[in-house]
Amino acid sequence: SYVLTQPPSVSVAPGKTARVTCGGNNIGTKSVHWYQQKPGQAPVVVIYYDSDRPSGIPERFSDSNSGNTATLTVSRVEAGDETDYYCQVWDTSSDHHVVFGGGTKLTVL
Amino acid sequence: EVQLLESGGDLVQPGGSLRLSCAASGFIYSSYAMSWVRQAPGKGLEWVSSISGSGVTTYYADSVKGRYTISRDNSKNTLYLQMNSLRAEDTAVYYCANYPSSGAAFDMWGHGTMVTVSS
Questions:
Q1: Could you tell me the CA-to-CA distances from B50 to A71, A105, B72 in Å, in that order?
Q2: B96 CA: distance to closest CA in chain A (Å)
Q3: Fewer CB in 10 Å around end: N or C, chain B?
């Protein structure tokens, strides 16, 4: 089955750029979706189909995807960005299965 | 306003059964596929099951295949998850979420309902 690997944690100073990686075999050939989940709340999609942002999500959130790594980039990080982030793909090699990464806790120093 | 509202979570003994419901509103329910995603305490997200908009096609994670059954009633805009032979490792918050088609992101999520499997 397809596996997505995320670092458990990423730390960044306010105003700087945070990069959260999501590793997977040839993930560059897949569409990656990214979710933000704040404590006690349901996940919210912040990036879908690698580059699209839902209305209300700041332009500070962007994504790149190539080779074996997708990267969520959060520019000009704010205190409110501190929370958990998950990548997600559809595993077309198995029957319609959805795969989530293990999640990354973004800490704003 | 799009809303998904789960219910049915409870404390159940190992080997027991439970049925979760997810009431949908604010969108054309039958046009969307639906999924259940769970999150064990302090852990990450795990996809559980999906069902097509018509309800004809269903999919399951290996961890629940043969024990869980997903279904929907489009006349009631409601999604269900019948969970049998529950195990301690099924303990989690269960979220329902919608998506327009295979390959898409989960657009909207409910607030979740807690299932605890313990004696």
A1: 27, 27, 10
A2: 10
A3: N
Give the ranges where A1-109 is alpha helix by DSSP (H): none
Residues 8-47 in B contacting A (C-alpha not used; CB under 8 Å): 35, 37, 44-47
**Distance between CA atoms of residues A87 and B96, nearest Å:** 18
> A89: which 2 tokens?
């793909």
Which residue on chain B is closest to A51 by alpha carbon? Answer: B105
Cβ neighbours of residue B47 closer than 8 Å, sequence gap 6 or more: A97, A98, A99, A100, B35, B37, B61
Cα–Cα distance for residue pair A64/B113, rounded to 1 Å: 34
Question: What is the secondary structure of B12-79 as a DSSP string?
Answer: E-TT--EEEEEEEESS-GGGSEEEEEEE-TTS-EEEEEEE-TTS--EEE-TTTTTTEEEEEETTTTEE
Q: A98: which chain B residues are within 8 Å (Cβ-Cβ)?
A: 35, 37, 47, 50
Smallest CA-to-CA distance from B93 within B48, B43, B25, B39 is with B39
Pairing of strands B18-25, B78-83: antiparallel
- Residue entry with tokens 């329910």: B29
Q: How deeply is B48 buried, as exposed, middle or buried, from its count of CB atoms within 10 A (0-12, 13-18, 19+)?
A: buried
Query: How is residue A29 written in tokens?
Result: 């050939």
